[in-house]
Design goal:
It is built from 6 helices and 5 strands. It has 167 residues and is an alpha/beta fold. It has a 5-stranded parallel beta sheet with strand order 2-1-3-4-5, with helices on both faces. Strand 4, helix 4 and strand 5 form a beta-alpha-beta unit. It starts with a strand and ends with a helix. The structure holds 5-O-phosphono-beta-D-ribofuranose. 5-O-phosphono-beta-D-ribofuranose (RP5) is lined by residues 10-11, 13-14, 38, 65-67, 88.
């Protein structure tokens, strides 16, 4: 099956922040490709990965990296596919990663998410929302996902209330 989402990690050590999102893709049967390639350690390979994603039918790219994180910018410079950037926690708690991604000079857009796990999961969810623009099955899945989330919050509220009432 043709991959619809391309994920590029600056290092295999970045994988944990996308684990939850990748589980979601697998559970929902969304075909994706994942590659490790560094903007600075393997610049030519990074360009080849981006070109490969586009050629294989990928519609949206997620790029995760940490530190002086120019991966998403380099990826975006080589494609017109939307690029979603996830800042990985670093020696500076990911603030360096975040600023490297979010402060793209005008002309090459990168949509930047929050640092770490929640950013990784939200990037996958936004990628799915982009695909859902012309895929009714994914749209339905996303609606169900939100419904389940609402139930979880309501259950937490009930359980907290019980705890308080119980003394
Ligand atoms: C970045 O350097 C990677 O994205 C990673 O977050 C960080 C450390 O990489 P490793 O030294 O763990 O390979 O390029």
């Amino acid at each position: 099956m043709k991959p619809r989402i391309g994920i590029i990690l600056g290092s295999d050590s970045d994988f944990p922040i996308l684990e939850k999102g990748i589980r979601l893709l697998r559970d929902w049967g969304i075909p994706f490709r994942i590659e490790v390639s560094s903007a600075h350690r393997t610049p030519e390979r990074t360009v080849r990965v981006v070109q490969g994603f586009a050629a294989s039918g990928v519609r949206v790219i997620i790029a995760a990296a940490g530190g002086a994180a120019h991966l998403a910018g380099i990826v975006a410079a080589h494609t017109l596919l939307p690029v979603l950037a996830v800042p990985v926690p670093s020696a500076l708690s990911g603030l360096d990663s975040l600023l490297s991604m979010v402060q793209m000079p005008s002309g090459i857009p990168v949509a930047t998410f929050g640092i770490g796990d929640s950013g990784g999961t939200n990037a996958v969810l936004l990628a799915l929302e982009i695909l859902a623009l012309d895929d009714a099955a994914i749209r339905k899945r996303l609606q169900e996902f939100r419904r389940q989330q609402e139930e979880t919050v309501a259950a937490k509220s009930r359980s907290l209330q019980q705890k308080i009432d119980g003394g």
